[in-house]
Amino acid sequence: METIILASGSPRRQELLNRVRIPFKAFPPSIDENFSNIGSVEERVKRIALRKIETVVEMFKQESPRWLLGLDTLVEIDGKAVHKPSGIEEAEKILKTLSGKVHRVHTGIGFLPAKREPVDLRSVCTEVKVAKLSDEDIEMYLETGEWSGVTGAYRIQERGAFFIEWIRGSYSNVVGLPLETFYGILKSNKYSLR
To answer: Annotated catalytic, 137?
Structure first.
């Protein structure tokens, strides 16, 4: 299998790629992710994923990057995007907002088969129902530190799973890389998994 260039520094995405034994090298781009002027969260994650790809392509001035994967994930509740909390107080506020409600996890996923080819750009949405959280639940979770650096202030693959009543859609999307959609993208772009 050929090595995929991952335009992300997310440890969760790297773990998922390792689990499905896809060889990759991570090139986390430094971009401004503030696309709040774009109407829908779905369109916003696609635009940010594309910008990550474009930024990494610019890093390869001489050679043509092949198999370049860019992603962005945002949580949406009540029509508004929720970002990564800047500190523990903001994480607490986010968890209180999610408590007892359904939210949507949107991931924009872009794949560039080769330089100057069109980017295969898609989005995935998963609905997640969070149980009603007590102050004690939130305090316990904040002490874990899992909220740090993650959209929506929880990690479904760790203790955050204690509070999830149900999900509708892709579990791996909530982690940060919708594997089902990724597999379809690989097949349609003739990436060999052998």
So the answer is: no
